Structures are given as structure tokens and as C-alpha cells.
């Protein structure tokens, strides 16, 4: 059967989209970052047969793992396409490998600013059509049960991986680039921004109903650095996606910015045009609401480590969290991705508690 991006099944549960756009909801919507992931035995079974990026690049496999949490947890109000933020550096010609127990590794990271010119911006998004194909297939297979979220890494976060050669606790090489080569850094961030805009538009064209931008490394930036090296590009991404969807006469798609560790800059994030701001677990919901005002949806922010507590404790903490955020303009989530050893019943306790809370 041919799946295309025209004849999608009608959406049966639009809580997430209503909350993102500030409309009334019957219950607070809930989903979880990394909900299709290693804590699920059925995901481990797929990974035992296929390597990580093969799953990302094979629409049938990406679709299957995207749907796995929905089969197990009835209370989830969204799905997020299974992929990785580092598919963009791959599309630019860099090699990225997933090493067990280590995470992503770039055998040849950027070591000199002259190497920026070697990145293959031309045609980058055409090398990511497998993500669009996975989104289109999943929109059909999900049968309208919940909306499907697409996503990307943000420019600063991607640049950090490209320079450090993987995850880094200190980001020392990247920080050196910020100090010594700020002109070239801005050129690289601009290149990444252009590719990200086209990548997100392609995801929306393919059927993504909400788009999230992950600035996962904002915790390495001061407020001043966030203002210089992150915020302008995040703002450009939001405006760029909006404009290109308009040019293509496509429906607008709500967007979320999640800057982990960016609690110092919520007022700046509120000026970027995103419908939703994701909060990590260090941010107080009541303070965040005061800062961003009433016209932006907040998402978050239970500490992923709280999911190692008993189901009773999880329910209590979740209900307390939802009360702090309130029902209006709120999407319940964790304050970062769910971790691999999380007990399966913890997700049940968390998602049920959100729907029980008022």
C-alpha cells in the first residue's frame, strides 16, 4: 500500500494541540521525552537486531518503535517520531556512530574553523527524507489516536557535538571556539539554522503536527552567551518555519522550544514566537509562569529520577506538579528524557496521575 501525506486518518485526540494553542482541554495532555526508548523491552528487542542509526533510517523500524509506547500506555496524548538530533551533522557529511555505553561518537570532529567550508549544506535535507517517510508512515499507522511530534536539535547544541566529537560534560573546545572564533561560530550557527528550517518544514509537510526544538546544551551557556549564540537562531528558526509553511500554503504547526538548563533566560525564550516553552526539572513552574506570562504554554517538568520512586510517590509528586502548573496552557512531561532503567510501572503511574489531576 502506498502511504502519502494527503489522506491521513482523522485525529481523535487533540488535547496536545489544543493545549499548545491555548484552547481549553478536558484533561492535561501528557507525553514523555524519549518515550520510545531503552526502558522498553520491546525497543531493546528491535535494537538487538538493528543498530541505532539503521532504526532511524528505516521508516518501518522508526515507525514501529514510535508506536511501541502507545501500545503499552493508554494515557499518552502524543507520539514523537523516533530519530536523533545528530542526523543533521550526518546529512552535512560528518560521520556519527552510536557506541554502546558511550553514546554518539564523531570519529572526525571539527578541529579547525576552516573545516566549516567542507560541510555539505547543499542537498542536506534531501539526505534526510527517510525522516519524512517515517513521519508519513507513522501518521497512517497511528490511525489518528494521538498527534505526532517532529523535532530537531538546535544550532548551538548540534555545533557542540560537532566540535567536541560527542557528548561533553565541560564543552571546553566549544567554549574555546566561542571566545576565539566568534565570527566563524556565527557562520556555522547560521548554516545549521538554514538546514534546520528546511528540515522542520519537510517534517511538517510529511505530517508532523507539532515541532520541538531541543537546545539540550543550554546549561553550558550563561545568559549573555545564550543571548548571543542561541536565542537569535532559535528565533530565526521559528520565523523561518512559519514563513516557509505560508509560502507553501501549508497549515501552520505549533512549535516548542526546550532549552535544558536555560531557566536563566525564560524571558528571552518568551519573545521568540514559540507556542510552548519546555522547562527542565530545576525550574519552579509558578516562577516560570510569572516570567513568561499567560499567552505561552509551558511543558514539563518532573525530574526523570523521580520515576525510580514508588508508584504512590510518583502519583503524589505528579499531582503536586500539575497543580503548580494549572490546567490551562500546560503539557505535562518530564524535565528531560526518561532514563533507560526506569521501571515500566512508573510510566503508568505518571501518565495516569496527570489525567487524574485537575
From TrEMBL:
GO cellular component: cytosol
Cellular compartments annotated: Cytoplasm, Cytosol
GO biological process: heme biosynthetic process
Domain Uroporphyrinogen decarboxylase (URO-D): 29-38, 149-165
Keyword terms of this UniProt record: Cytoplasm, Decarboxylase, Heme biosynthesis, Lyase, Porphyrin biosynthesis
Pfam families in the cross-refs: URO-D (PF01208)
Single annotated GO MF: uroporphyrinogen decarboxylase activity
Subunit structure: Homodimer.
Family note: Belongs to the uroporphyrinogen decarboxylase family.
UniProt function note: Catalyzes the decarboxylation of four acetate groups of uroporphyrinogen-III to yield coproporphyrinogen-III.
Protein name as catalogued: Uroporphyrinogen decarboxylase
Annotated source species: Euphydryas editha
Amino acid at each position: 500500500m502506498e502511504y502519502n501525506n494527503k489522506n491521513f486518518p482523522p485525529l481523535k485526540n487533540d488535547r496536545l494541540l489544543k493545549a499548545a494553542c491555548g484552547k481549553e482541554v478536558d484533561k492535561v495532555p501528557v507525553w514523555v521525552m524519549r518515550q520510545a526508548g531503552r526502558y522498553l523491552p520491546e525497543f531493546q528487542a528491535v535494537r538487538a537486531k538493528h543498530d541505532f542509526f539503521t532504526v532511524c533510517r528505516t521508516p518501518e523500524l522508526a515507525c514501529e518503535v514510535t508506536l511501541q509506547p502507545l501500545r503499552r500506555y493508554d494515557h499518552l496524548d502524543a507520539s514523537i517520531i523516533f530519530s536523533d538530533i545528530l542526523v543533521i551533522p550526518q546529512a552535512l557529511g560528518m560521520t556519527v556512530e552510536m557506541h554502546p555505553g558511550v553514546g554518539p561518537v564523531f570519529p572526525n570532529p571539527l578541529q579547525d574553523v576552516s573545516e566549516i567550508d567542507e560541510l555539505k549544506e547543499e542537498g542536506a535535507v534531501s539526505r534526510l527524507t527517510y525522516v519524512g517517510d517515517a513521519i508519513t508512515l507513522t501518521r497512517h499507522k497511528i490511525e489518528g489516536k494521538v498527534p505526532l511530534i517532529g523535532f530537531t536539535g538546535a544550532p548551538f547544541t548540534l555545533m557542540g557535538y560537532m566540535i567536541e566529537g560527542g557528548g561533553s560534560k565541560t564543552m571546553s573546545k566549544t567554549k574555546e571556539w566561542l571566545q576565539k572564533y566568534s565570527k566563524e561560530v556565527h557562520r556555522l550557527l547560521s548554516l545549521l539554522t538554514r538546514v534546520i528550517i528546511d528540515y522542520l518544514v519537510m517534517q511538517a509537510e510529511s505530517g508532523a503536527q507539532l515541532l520541538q526544538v531541543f537546545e539540550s546544551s543550554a546549561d553550558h551557556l550563561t545568559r549573555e552567551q545564550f543571548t548571543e549564540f542561541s536565542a537569535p537562531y532559535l528565533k530565526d528558526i521559528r520565523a523561518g518555519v512559519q514563513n516557509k509553511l505560508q509560502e507553501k500554503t501549508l497549515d501552520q504547526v505549533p512549535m516548542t522550544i526546550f532549552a535544558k538548563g536555560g531557566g536563566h533566560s525564560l524571558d528571552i525564550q518568551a519573545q521568540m514566537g514559540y507556542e510552548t516553552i519546555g522547562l527542565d526539572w530545576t525550574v519552579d513552574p509558578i516562577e516560570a509562569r510569572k516570567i513568561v506570562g499567560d499567552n505561552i504554554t509551558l511543558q514539563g517538568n518532573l525530574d526523570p529520577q523521580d520515576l525510580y520512586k514508588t508508584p504512590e510517590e510518583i502519583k503524589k509528586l505528579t499531582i503536586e506538579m500539575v497543580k503548580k502548573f494549572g490546567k490551562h496552557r500546560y503539557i505535562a512531561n518530564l524535565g528531560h528524557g526518561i532514563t533507560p532503567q526506569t521501571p515500566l510501572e512508573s510510566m503508568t503511574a505518571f501518565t495516569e496521575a496527570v489525567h487524574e489531576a485537575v
